[in-house]
Design goal:
heterodimer; A: about 260 residues; D-Maltodextrin-Binding Protein, domain 2; 2 domains; five-stranded mixed beta sheet; 10 helices; 12 strands; globular; B: about 260 residues; mainly alpha; MetI-like fold; about 75% helix; about 0% strand; Solute-binding_3/MltF_N (chain A); SBP_3_CS (chain A); Nickel transporter (chain A); signal (chain A); Iontro_rcpt_C (chain A)
């Protein structure tokens, strides 16, 4: 009986202590973890990548404790709205559709989107040319919007993680896949897995679907958007951004 | 002057702005949910049918302790009942696809490259393992008298199995089987993790396409509930019919006592 009371008392005080602290100044950031080199998991389970470093740099700039919360991609926005974290730093493109649900900061990088298929593949990127073609992509992305809009007669396969898309492309279950070019180069084409595959067609162009760069999403009306935008500008100005950028890429991915 | 709005536009406006659930969006995509329900039902009931057919000979071999077969079947049911269905499905889908030899074999292009077949194989083997074990239990608990009576009537072992042991065992396994059917239906959501557009797959598609939190899930949930309801009704009817002998017998109503 006494043990039980002690146990309950210690649990309550622990919750009060840590819970209270978390409320005070921790910034909870939703990240994904299966989108190399932007967001990935090391062998020991820790998160790394461009998004992760940017998130940590922004927290440091805002002088707040950072808590990274992992979340599968298709639940990213719902979990933000449900208050599981306060901001999403997960290579999320700024689109009109998403703006109906969340607010965005200014962009923190901008890269084009492109298709990948077997080297020498001759699919025509038209409505007729993609009829019945198996196209793999990550569920709930700008790519889903693009492919469903432009190639509605394709056989569209939706995946939970980008790694699964690549696995099925290699296994031959997919004819092609579509995603962010930088992620595709570093996460796939330059790996042993990506041998024999190449980009198909040019950079895609459709702002309505593909958005205007990659931003940080926060709940609607949250002043955090402004603070984070200022912090992005600050780390751009003080060289922190460049250092992180150079760690992963040869070019400046901030765009124009 | 404000332009007149039709009732439908009015509904849409409420649905998008004030309603807690965007019901018009669900309504607009109902055909997709019906297609998803069809995939779910196909997978569930094909797996149950095939799994059931496999389970009958396996259960007999287990119940009669056939040498060699019995330990092998036990190993199979133990493995499939002791591991999660999700892991089994991943093994068939992602696991086999890793091997060059599998990809070059004749099984790849019509069957193993297709998520539908991978899922069906995994579900079938899984439900067959469970069904084998409780059917074995039902066969083992066949009342002795029934078998003695069958022997006394001069039935051969095969006729005995066909006319007495199995029908009697099926009846006893019926209540447990209704659980297995519902569990298989629930387990079928795993199909959505390997790109199939089953009920949950459609729900997740809707959530992903419109960045919603629960519209897709709530709709899928209602569909699942309706399916489970119909399955329960079917089993209630079956139990009433085939387990009639177990219910307390209704006696003829005694005539109402005359008022004094």
């Amino acid at each position: 009986m006494k043990l039980k009371k002690t146990l309950i008392a210690s649990v309550v005080s622990a919750v009060a202590l840590f819970g209270g602290q978390a409320m005070a100044d921790t910034l909870r950031i939703g990240v994904e973890g299966a989108y190399a080199p932007f967001s990935m998991k090391e062998a020991d389970g820790t998160l790394s990548g461009f998004d992760i470093d940017i998130a940590n740099a922004l927290c440091a700039e805002l002088k707040r404790e950072c808590e990274l919360v992992e979340q599968e991609w298709d639940g990213m926005i719902p979990a933000l709205i449900a208050n599981k974290y306060d901001a999403i730093v997960a290579s999320m493109s700024i689109t009109e559709d998403r703006k109906k649900k969340v607010d965005f900061t200014e962009k923190y990088y901008a890269t084009p989107t492109r298709f990948i298929a077997k080297e020498g593949a001759t699919f025509e990127l038209t409505r007729e040319g993609t009829k019945g073609v198996k196209i793999g992509l990550l569920r709930g992305t700008t790519m889903q919007c693009y492919v469903e809009k432009h190639f509605p007669e394709a056989d569209i396969k939706l995946y939970n993680t980008q790694e699964d898309v690549f696995a099925d492309l290699v296994a031959g279950r997919l004819d092609m896949q579509i995603n962010n070019t930088l992620q595709a180069i570093d996460g796939f084409l330059n790996t042993p897995q990506g041998k024999g595959f190449a980009f198909l067609g040019d950079d895609l162009d459709d702002v309505a679907c593909l958005g205007e760069g990659t931003g940080i999403a926060v709940r609607k009306g949250d002043p955090l958007a402004g603070e984070l935008s200022a912090a992005i500008k600050a780390i751009r100005a003080n060289g922190t951004y460049q250092a992180i950028n150079d760690k992963y890429f040869d070019i400046d991915i901030y765009g124009k | 002057m404000e332009p007149e709005r039709t009732f439908l536009e009015y509904l849409r406006d409420i649905s998008e702005t004030t309603a807690p659930l965007d019901f018009m969006l669900i309504f607009d995509n109902l055909d997709r949910f019906v297609e998803g329900a069809w995939v779910t039902l196909q997978l569930t009931f094909l797996a149950l049918l095939l799994g059931g057919l496999i389970a009958i000979p396996l259960a007999i071999a287990r119940a009669y302790r056939k040498p060699v077969l019995n330990p092998i079947i036990w190993g199979y049911t133990y493995a499939f009942r002791g591991t999660p269905l999700l892991v089994q499905t991943y093994l068939f889908y992602f696991g086999l696809g890793q091997f060059e030899a599998v990809r070059n074999s004749f099984l790849w292009s019509p069957i193993l490259s297709d998520p539908w077949w991978c899922v069906l194989i995994a579900f079938t083997l899984n439900t067959a393992a469970y069904t084998t074990e409780f059917l074995r239990g039902a066969i083992e608990t066949t009342p002795r008298g029934e078998i003695e009576a069958a022997k006394a009537a001069g039935m051969s072992p095969w006729t005995r199995m066909r006319l007495v042991v199995l029908p009697s065992a099926f009846r006893r396994a019926l209540p447990a089987y209704s659980n297995e059917v519902i569990f298989t239906l629930h387990g079928s959501v795993i199909a959505s993790t390997v790109t199939l557009q089953d009920l949950l797959g459609v729900g997740r598609w809707l959530n992903g396409r419109y960045y919603l939190a629960y519209e897709g899930f709530v709709t899928a949930m209602l569909f699942y509930m309706a399916i489970v309801f119909m399955i329960s009704l079917a089993f209630r009817y079956a139990e009433k019919r085939y387990l009639k002998h177990l219910r307390p017998r209704e006696t003829e109503k005694s005539p109402r006592p005359a008022l004094a």
